[in-house]
Amino acid sequence: MWGMIATWRMAKEGLEIAQDILSHHGDAGDAIEKAIQAVEDFPYYKSVGYGGLPNEEMEVELDAAYMDGNTLSVGAIGAIKDFANPISIARRLSHEKVNCILVGEGAEKFAHKEGFERKNMLTDRARIHYRRRIKESSQQLKPYTGHDTVGMVCLDETGKMTAATSTSGLFMKKKGRIGDSPIIGSGFYVDSDIGGASATGLGEDLMKGCISYEIVQLMAKGMHPQQACEKAVFDLEEKLKQRRGEAGDLSVVAMNHRGEFGVATNIDGFSFVVCLPQQSPIVYLVERQGNQCVYAPASQQWMDEYMHTRMAPLTESEDE
């Protein structure tokens, strides 16, 4: 048995690469790294990697993390600039016993020493989005409302599981800001004996519930991944509303060691992708119904419109 689940439609092409690896007896670490690299390298996805939207100083700062569910080894980087494929740097760090989480200049020095590719990650499209936001904002800049981290959980034939994330974070974020994505237990967590989870949304709120770790612990107690995701999301949402008056975007995906999967969200428009031995990667759209979530395959029309919107020509005076 093998399987893989990922946040958002943007992960589909990456999961197609991973499927080929997993179906030929490949390793969960290799599959998840290659899948996330595909998202990082596609310039039209403006929340991950090359083409990711910049911070308020028009710098692209990237976060990424990788976890091995067999050894519980973790590698993570935060606020790194001018390096391609932060997921690969994070995976390399997971082999370190100490100094396995690096940020900013320290992460960049490590990446340079290890020979990772330097690359200007700011694209012309991202510059246009930035300049528009500056023109639109007569008051203090506020972060972009979307938080589309790509997060994945992978299971291979040997039973090994991995989890990984990659993101450019909030648009117009403060320099040096780090969300949940590179934080173990919040943006991701995996234990090959149980399963794994990954989150996307408002990192500042997701971290308040250590939500990925919480989902794995619920699965450890016998919950199906779907039940675990729903309980974690809606319990945290309720607590945040009670304590703070509001809750940000909270979306999660999970898979257990048997290849069963689950998903939950408190927003409209969340999508995810799954591949299993009996099915190629399928994009699903999620609908919240009270404190439960249901999902159905995305239509071809939805898929076509998704790519058309993201790849449409962009100028300074038009909106994407």
TrEMBL record:
Q: Which domain of life is it from?
A: Bacteria
Residues binding substrate are 177-180, 200-203
Under the heading SUPFAM superfamilies, the entry gives: N-terminal nucleophile aminohydrolases (Ntn hydrolases)
Q: Which residues span the membrane? A: none
Pfam short name (any one):
Asparaginase_2
What the entry lists under Gene3D superfamilies is as follows: (Glycosyl)asparaginase
Per the UniProt record, the site (Cleavage) maps to: 148-149
**Active site (record annotation):** 149 (nucleophile)
For this record, the Gene Ontology CC terms, alphabetical, are: cytoplasm
Q: Which GO terms describe its molecular function?
A: hydrolase activity, acting on carbon-nitrogen (but not peptide) bonds, in linear amides
**Name of protein:** N(4)-(Beta-N-acetylglucosaminyl)-L-asparaginase
Q: Which organism is it from?
A: Massilimicrobiota timonensis
